[in-house]
């Protein structure tokens, strides 16, 4: 399903996001007294963490201006009240969509990639890759900001799909993604040219299968030597259970607004740490402890320059155009995305 949450994990919908962040009324658990950031940073500096897995939800994208799904009054679900849907998550139910696609298309206009830029949190994760430490990132988000900041496709699992492709929800015939976007943004319904059913972006809905790439977790999590969980409420299965599949001796670091999932339980596992509060502030502190702050800022500047070419003839280039040029540059220099990934991660050695 979409990614989308301030701190929660939802099937297929997330940042750009299906409120993935936890907004429960429960009192927040205090940050771990074990100095989570410093403890984990020490392990990284000692070379103990070389296969880092990141699990992320919509909370990593709120700093980019993308609302989460559940925050009262401001979440994306709150904007669907005019459609009188039976319950908020119905907008991502494939059977409900088949009957009435309009609520989802209304929501999709706010989620489509193009109007938002990656933030410091995304670039922190990119820096993990740049340092050769990122085994894989598993995101619930569908906003595409992970790719936009330069995280290679082979290092990224978009568990809830994305807007990059589109197809008929009934016969699965592929449909040009740009044509689908144009229709949706102009309040039209894209129609399959084969069976005349409704076309939708390839975002995973409740009732649909997760992408095949998601099942890389069966290999990745047993190999991980550090698990970082960011901006997710860990409420949506099967994504939420992934955090329990690393070895019991592997440190797990929760960076979130609230304690969620296994971090709500006392006592924590001996290798568990959490830092609660504003996520971007927390990540900036973590980067400072690691000594990466200046490198991340430079990476942000260089990537934004690469992603946004100079304006010509008074025209504003679309994000799609910027990204296609970026992809062409990478293809020319590396020959493949996997090679580019390896080159980037080795460049920091």
From TrEMBL:
The EC number(s) this enzyme carries: 2.3.1.286
Binding site for Zn(2+): 168, 171, 192, 195
Biased amino acid composition, Low complexity: 1-25
Gene Ontology molecular function terms on file: histone deacetylase activity, NAD-dependent; NAD+ binding; zinc ion binding
Binding site for NAD(+): 58-62, 68-70, 140-143, 232-233
Co-factor: note: Binds 1 zinc ion per subunit.
Domain Deacetylase sirtuin-type: 30-293
A cellular component term, taken from the record's GO annotations: nucleus
InterPro entries: DHS-like_NAD/FAD-binding_dom, NAD-dep_sirtuin_deacylases, Sirtuin, Sirtuin_cat_small_dom_sf, Sirtuin_class_I, Ssirtuin_cat_dom
Highest taxon above the source species: Eukaryota
Active site: 160 (proton acceptor)
Record field: catalytic activity: N(6)-acetyl-L-lysyl-[protein] + NAD(+) + H2O = 2''-O-acetyl-ADP-D-ribose + nicotinamide + L-lysyl-[protein]
Cofactor(s) this protein requires: Zn(2+)
Biased composition (Polar residues): 313-327
Pfam families (alphabetical): SIR2
Name of the top EC class for this enzyme: transferase
Swiss-Prot/TrEMBL keywords: Metal-binding, NAD, Transferase, Zinc
UniProt xrefs under SUPFAM superfamilies: DHS-like NAD/FAD-binding domain
Primary role: NAD-dependent protein deacetylase.
Name of the protein described by the UniProt record: NAD-dependent protein deacetylase
Source species taxonomy: Eukaryota, Metazoa, Chordata, Craniata, Vertebrata
């Amino acid at each position: 399903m979409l990614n989308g949450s301030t701190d929660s994990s939802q099937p297929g919908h997330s940042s750009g996001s299906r409120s993935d962040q936890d907004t429960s009324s429960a009192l927040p658990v205090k940050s771990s007294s074990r100095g989570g950031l410093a403890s984990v940073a020490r392990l990284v500096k000692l070379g103990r963490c070389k296969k880092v897995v990141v699990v992320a939800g919509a909370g990593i994208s709120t700093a980019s201006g993308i609302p989460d799904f559940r925050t009262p009054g401001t979440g994306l679900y709150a904007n669907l009240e005019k459609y009188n849907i039976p319950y908020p998550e119905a907008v991502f139910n494939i059977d409900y969509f088949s009957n009435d696609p309009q609520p989802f298309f209304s929501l999709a206009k706010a989620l489509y990639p193009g109007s938002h830029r990656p933030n410091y949190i995304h670039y922190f994760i990119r820096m993990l890759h740049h340092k050769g430490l990122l085994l894989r990132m598993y995101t619930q988000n569908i906003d595409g900001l992970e790719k936009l900041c330069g995280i290679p496709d082979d290092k990224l699992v978009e568990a809830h799909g994305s807007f990059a492709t589109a197809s008929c929800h009934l016969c699965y015939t592929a449909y040009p993604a740009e044509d689908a976007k144009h229709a949706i943004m102009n309040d039209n319904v894209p129609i399959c040219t084969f069976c005349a059913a409704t076309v939708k972006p390839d975002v995973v809905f409740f009732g649909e299968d997760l992408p095949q790439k998601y099942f890389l977790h069966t290999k990745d999590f047993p190999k991980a030597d550090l698990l970082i969980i960011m901006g997710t409420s860990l409420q949506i299965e099967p994504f939420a259970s992934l955090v329990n599949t690393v070895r019991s001796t592997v440190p797990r670091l929760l960076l979130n607004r609230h304690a969620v999932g296994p971090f709500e339980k006392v006592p924590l596992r001996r290798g568990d740490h959490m830092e609660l509060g504003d996520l971007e502030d927390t990540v900036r502190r973590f980067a400072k402890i690691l000594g990466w702050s200046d490198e991340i800022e430079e990476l942000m500047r260089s990537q934004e320059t690469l992603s946004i070419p100079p304006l010509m003839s008074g025209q504003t280039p679309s994000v799609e155009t910027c990204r296609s040029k970026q992809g062409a540059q990478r293809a020319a220099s590396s020959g493949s995305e996997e090679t580019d990934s390896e080159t980037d991660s080795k460049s920091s050695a």
